[in-house]
Amino acid sequence: MAARRLDGIAVANQIRAELRPAVEAFTARAGRPPGLGIVLVGENPASEIYVRNKLKSAADVGLRADLAQLPATASVSQLLEVVDALNRSEAHDAILVQSPLPEAMGPGAERRVFDAISPDKDVDGFHPVNVGRLVQNRATLVACTPSGVIELLNRSNISIAGARAVVIGRSDIVGKPMALLLLHRHATVTICHSRTSDLQAIAAQADILVSAIGRAAFVTPAFVKAGATVVDVGINRLTDRAEVERACPPGSKGREDFERRGWVVVGDVHESVAEVAGALTPVPGGVGPLTIAMLLKNTLLAARLRAQC
Ligand code: NAP
User: What is the pLDDT of residues 109-133, one digit of tens each?
Assistant: First the structure.
């Protein structure tokens, strides 16, 4: 039987619909809308699209959203000045510096910049103070993608407590916070990564399997226990025919998209997993839309905490 499709677009729309009146009420109480400051450095086309979507989504729910743009040649000090101004701004409750930063900024730039964001305005939950709070299960602002996954599981009535969860990927922005959020909801959690031995056998024990590695169609049916919930966080843009043929079966939408426009976006999970899993998030249309919805939700939360209303 084909897996139930966990519709991220529908859940994200639900969250936005709940946010609109809540943002309106905050604006009436505080005399100003919650404010989000986005900083974009350089001209990375994917980042430009992400930022445009974030600005539009923020405006749609009634948030104030401002963009500060710096050229690719900007120095880390110039970027830190912009972050400092947003830290001190009365109108901004949340700050997002779009990743990745230009390579010319040098190694370690991203960490320096993220660390400079005031923890109270750290809408992505990347600051070490917020990560520490998450470890202690007293988090306020938590990374948007993993908290979006939790919203999706909750609103799809997938029970987490007591479940055996396996997270593939241990990045600071997805894998680690994902594992902690599942742990705090009483799952028994295993984290796998590129050095994990026998990853397939470990994954196949999971009731909830989350893949966040960025490897197209890596997770095949052999990784999945019958009836498991599979969450595909990966976003992989393929332009190579051989890769597309491996990831997208003949007649699939992915294959059609590729034939039409020469590229396709797929997740970490092979389409054939739908024949084994009980529930599955599609790519696109699964976790992605929730990441933006959680950014909006975190902005309102940061505003409420700052304004204490
Ligand atoms: P990342 O920082 O590159 O981390 C990738 C992780 O995957 C690392 O922990 C790495 O292990 C592990 N890994 C890589 N290849 C592996 C393999 N063959 N077997 C096992 N583990 C492997 O990536 P990220 O930022 O976490 O993002 C992961 C994916 O999620 C990407 O496709 C990204 O585009 C996507 N993403 C989606 C959203 C969304 O909104 N849907 C948001 C963020 C990210 P090591 O630590 O051992 O190197």
Answer: 999 999 999 999 999 999 999 999 9
Ligand 1 pocket test target in 51, 174, 269, 298 with most atoms within 8 Å of CB:
174
The ligand 1 atom nearest the CA atom of 291? 40
* Placement of tokens 């790519």 in the chain: 283
Q: How far apart are CA 82 and CA 35, in angstroms?
A: 15
- Distance, CA 246 to ligand 1 centroid (Å)? 20
Identity of residue 291: T
Q: How many Å apart are CA 148 and CA 146, to the nearest integer?
A: 5
CA of 215 to the centre of ligand 1 (A): 8
pLDDT in tens, 3-59: 999 999 999 999 999 999 999 999 999 999 999 999 999 999 999 999 999 999 999
| Rounded distance from Cα 209 to ligand 1 centre (Å) | 14
Q: Whose CA is nearest to atom 3 of ligand 1?
A: 213
- Whole-angstrom Cα distance, residue 173 to residue 276? 29
* Distance (Å) of CA 86 to CA 27, 81, 117, 138, 241: 20, 9, 9, 25, 45
